[in-house]
Design a protein that fits this description.
The complex is a heterodimer of chains A (about 575) and B (about 190). Chain A has 4 domains: about 170 residues, Nucleotidyltransferase, domain 5; about 110 residues, 2-Layer Sandwich (Nucleotidyltransferase, domain 5); about 80 residues, ATPase, substrate binding domain, subdomain 4 (Actin, Chain A, domain 4, Alpha-Beta Complex), CATH 3.90.640; about 140 residues, Sandwich (Substrate Binding Domain Of DNAk, Chain A, domain 1). In chain A, about 30% of the residues lie in helices and about 30% in strands. Chain A is built from 15 helices and 28 strands. In chain A, a hairpin with a 5-residue loop joins strand 25 and strand 26. In chain A, the strands form 7 sheets. In chain A, strands 1, 2, 3, 4, 11 and 12 form a 6-stranded mixed beta sheet that branches. Chain A has a 5-stranded mixed beta sheet with strand order 18-13-14-15-19, sandwiched between helices. A 5-stranded antiparallel beta sheet of chain A has the order 27-26-25-22-28, with no helix packed on it. Chain A is an alpha+beta fold and about 575 residues long. Chain B has one domain: Helix Hairpins (Orthogonal Bundle), CATH 1.10.287. Chain B has 8 helices and no strands. The radius of gyration of chain B is 24 Å and the shape is elongated. Classes of the chains: A alpha+beta (about 575), B mainly alpha (about 190). At the A-B interface, helix 1, helix 6, strand 12, strand 19 and strand 21 of A face helix 1, helix 2, helix 4, helix 5 and helix 7 of B. Chain A: InterPro entries: ATPase_NBD (IPR043129), HSP70_peptide-bd_sf (IPR029047), Hsp_70_fam (IPR013126). Chain A: This is Heat shock 70 kDa protein 8. Chain A: One of its GO terms (molecular function) is ATP-dependent protein folding chaperone. Chain A: Keywords: ATP-binding, Nucleotide-binding, Stress response. Chain A: Belongs to the heat shock protein 70 family.
Chain lengths: ~575, ~190
């Protein structure tokens, strides 16, 4: 206790250069970067408040337009009309593109956007460009996101009258660790320090946990455990979480997610209205882009209307003699998108199954995100969960409010009324494992494992006197290994000469309190206490943008010469 | 953004611990900047020699009687999570708290699953009640179980894939990797 001042200094704001005199020093803000819209919220001292821009908006469109010298995003920029965003000069949907390679189906689906998304289909990052004065100006999703985050940061600094550095961001459940590094990169470019990246439904779960705790305080309720299912569907992604909540602790039981959202519904409908859309717009001249914009706006408008009315009349003149005039019924809309709705239903069922939760155990069903008004989705969810939808949460603000709560908690803020006595126990959204047993994916940390965690699996060699082994780390739960996300690879060398199946190669994976993944690998010979040679420690992901072709190249170069198989203990199952 | 991490590696300064505990609020923990080096425990797990733990049963760890109900187990778990989860640990002690949390998590996962709890109780009755060794074995068994489940799933999927790739052969547009895999599968 002798020198507290020194210790405070050493542990407070890391660089020490941004000392703020504000009464709320550096409470991390919550940011929800949606595919379509984004928002910022912060703990105000007694509650969470959304930060408004100069036009008094709480929700801002996520896009950056490149038409002038200085790019401008949806925070500061005022769109004269929706069509301006669709003129080719604006890049949007960056959340769907970030960290993806040009063989990814989501990237291919983005090729019908008004800006340029070019693919070579070899597993490198796609080429993205905005149309500026009839020239394609190249950019990257990270750059676009960073420009946007700079605007958000400036807006928050003006409104809060203090520097903003620390943030909690929400991300889709299905984001791989590689995509997370891209988000972190964009934040770093914008001068933001990421305290946490929360899967969106877990942020909603935290908000729910706080509400439950408050109602317990107020009504002297039982305070027993409540199970909630959270379904979040925005423009780009669909996420599900099952949480068990008690006493302000939100324990994530299971997560499920996929890159499926309103954008896919919109594309389906555009193709339905104009079946030869792709050939129609393939040349991508200024006129084609303008026509595509007209179709997009008309279709979007019709979809919105179908949430409240049973049919809608679409009349759009695309020019060059193409006119679409059609009455569209809600049933037709649901038929066209049946595959998407079916996938949503199966995600919910899968998540309940993974959480080992029976439908009867669910206390509340929470539906959030931009698609939450679609009647068909509401029917599916109430049908599966046999519950009415929880109405205590604003579906468009839930995630950002949860992120702001987490930001306050992570910044060490205390609330005299106990509103911040909160904790999220996170689970791994995707399995992490290695390639072994031929060309199989062997998970080491399974999906929905509580974090932090450490797990190991023992492998052995497939050849006599095999001196080296390749550890290729993947993340995901896709059936085909190639469809999972490659996180990195390294080689274990110096395996002592022995018959195949004798050396024990221990691969251990560790996710620490800051969600950092480390992979350890060491060789142990039977009957020997210490590892043969130094143990490898690799922080993952190590791959870079061109990771799409790495696995193929490794396979081509090494085949099965450096393979591993899992050890089946004698007498085990 | 990780450039600040170095200054925050946990140090074993006793002064720091006693002080920080009482000043956590004024002094927000910067979780992201902790870049904890895995401690000896991780390395020793490679040698499978983790055993220096106090021999506490899972019930003792959660602080509940052996007759404790599921509700009690869940309550105890959430209370201990609030105490030991690294998110709420005092700065500099995240690693230590992580270890404690992982043990609490194991106890909870075992005792909240009726099947695993019954196995654990049986082991305890036999006198094999060293929590950590039992835990190690439990995990290993479980992993093997999961793995064999995975394996059978993979095998059925693999055969499906093989079937599909045979159909594709006629297309003659296989990738290098696919061709190598096919050759390997055929030769084995």
């Amino acid at each position: 206790m002798a020198e507290p001042a020194y210790l405070v200094a050493s542990d407070s704001e890391t660089t020490g250069e941004e000392k703020s005199s504000s009464p709320f020093p550096d409470i991390a803000i919550g940011i929800d970067i949606g595919t379509s819209q984004c928002s910022v919220a912060v703990w105000s001292g007694s509650q969470v408040e959304l930060v408004r821009n100069t036009r008094n908006q709480k929700l801002m469109r996520s896009y950056v337009t490149f038409k002038d010298e200085i790019p401008a995003g949806g925070v500061s920029n005022q769109l004269a009309h929706e069509y301006e965003m669709l003129s080719g000069a604006a890049i949007f949907n960056m959340k769907r593109l970030i960290g993806r390679v040009d063989t990814d189906p989501v990237v291919h689906a983005s090729k019908s956007l008004p800006f340029l998304v070019q693919t070579l289909n070899i597993g490198v990052r796609p080429f993205i460009a905005a149309l500026v004065k009839n020239m394609w100006r190249s950019t990257t999703p990270e750059e676009v996101l960073a420009i946007f985050l700079v605007e958000l940061r400036a807006m928050a600094e003006v409104q809060l009258k203090r520097p903003v550095r620390n943030v909690v961001l929400t991300i889709p459940v299905s984001f791989s660790r590689f995509q997370i590094t891209r988000i972190e990169r964009a934040c770093a470019m914008a001068g933001l320090q990421v305290l946490r990246l929360m899967p969106e439904p877990t942020a909603v779960a935290l908000l729910y946990a706080q509400q439950q705790q408050q109602s317990v305080h107020e009504n002297m309720g039982s305070g027993s455990e409540k199970i909630a299912l959270i379904f979040n569907m925005g423009a780009g992604f669909c996420d599900v979480a099952v949480t068990a909540t008690a006493g302000g602790v939100s324990q994530i039981k299971a997560l499920a997610g996929t890159a499926l959202g309103g954008e896919d519904i919109l594309l389906n409908m555009m193709r339905h209205l104009l079946p030869d859309m792709d050939t129609h717009f393939s040349t991508r001249g200024i006129d084609e882009i303008r026509r595509m914009g007209l179709l997009r706006v008309a279709t979007q408008d019709a979809i919105h209307k179908l949430s409240s009315q049973s049919s809608v009349q679409i009349d759009v003149d695309l020019g060059n003699g193409r006119k679409i005039s059609k009455a569209l019924g809600r049933e037709e809309f649901e038929d066209v998108n049946w595959e998407i709705f079916e996938k949503c239903e199966s995600l919910i069922k899968q998540c309940l199954h993974d959480a080992k939760v029976e439908v009867e155990d669910i206390s509340d069903v929470i539906l959030v995100g931009g698609c939450s008004n679609i009647p068909k989705l509401r029917n599916i969810i109430t049908g599966v969960c046999k519950r009415e939808i929880y109405n205590g949460i604003n579906p468009l603000e839930a995630a950002v409010r949860g992120a702001a709560l987490e930001g306050a908690v992570a910044s060490g803020v205390n609330d005299p009324f106990g509103s911040l006595d909160l904790l999220t126990i996170q689970a791994t959204p995707l399995s992490i494992g290695v390639r072994a047993d031929g060309n199989s994916f062997v998970p080491i940390i399974h999906q929905n494992t509580t974090m932090p965690v450490r797990r190991d699996v023992i492998f052995t060699t497939v050849h006599d006197n095999q001196a080296e082994a390749l550890i290729i780390v993947y993340e995901g739960d896709e059936k085909a290994m190639e469809k999972n996300h490659l996180l990195g690879y390294f080689k274990i060398t110096g395996i002592p000469p022995a018959l195949k199946g004798v050396p024990e190669i221990n691969v251990c994976m560790d996710i620490d309190a800051s969600n950092v993944l480390r992979v350890f690998a060491g060789v142990v010979m039977p009957g020997v206490q210490n590892p043969a040679g130094p143990v490898m420690e690799v922080r993952m992901p190590t791959v870079d943008d061109g990771h799409g072709w790495c696995a193929e190249a490794l396979n081509r170069t090494y085949g099965s010469t450096l393979d591993l198989v899992t050890v089946q203990k004698k007498g085990a199952h | 953004m990780y450039s600040n991490g170095v200054g925050h590696l946990p140090r074993s300064d006793p002064l720091r611990f006693s002080f920080l505990h009482s000043t956590r609020l004024e002094n927000p923990p910067q979780f992201v900047s902790f870049r904890i080096r895995p401690g000896p425990a991780i390395r020793s797990s490679l040698n499978d020699t983790i055993s220096e733990r106090p021999a506490m049963s899972f019930y003792e760890l959660l602080g509940i009687p052996e007759t404790g109900s599921l509700v009690e187990i869940k309550q105890a778990y959430k209370q201990l999570a609030r105490k030991y989860h690294p998110d709420v640990s005092p700065p500099g002690r995240a690693e230590e708290y992580t270890q404690a949390f992982i043990r609490v998590q194991e106890a909870y996962e075992t005792l909240s699953d009726p099947r695993r709890r019954a196995l654990y109780d049986r082991d305890m009755a036999k006198g094999v009640h060293l929590a950590f060794t039992a835990r190690r074995r439990g995990i290993f068994d479980e992993q093997m179980e999961e793995k064999s489940e995975w394996k059978s799933r993979w095998q059925s999927q693999l055969s499906e894939l093989k079937r599909k790739s045979m159909q594709k052969d006629s297309d003659d547009n296989m990738s290098w990797g696919a061709r190598m895999r096919r050759e390997r599968n055929q030769s084995s």
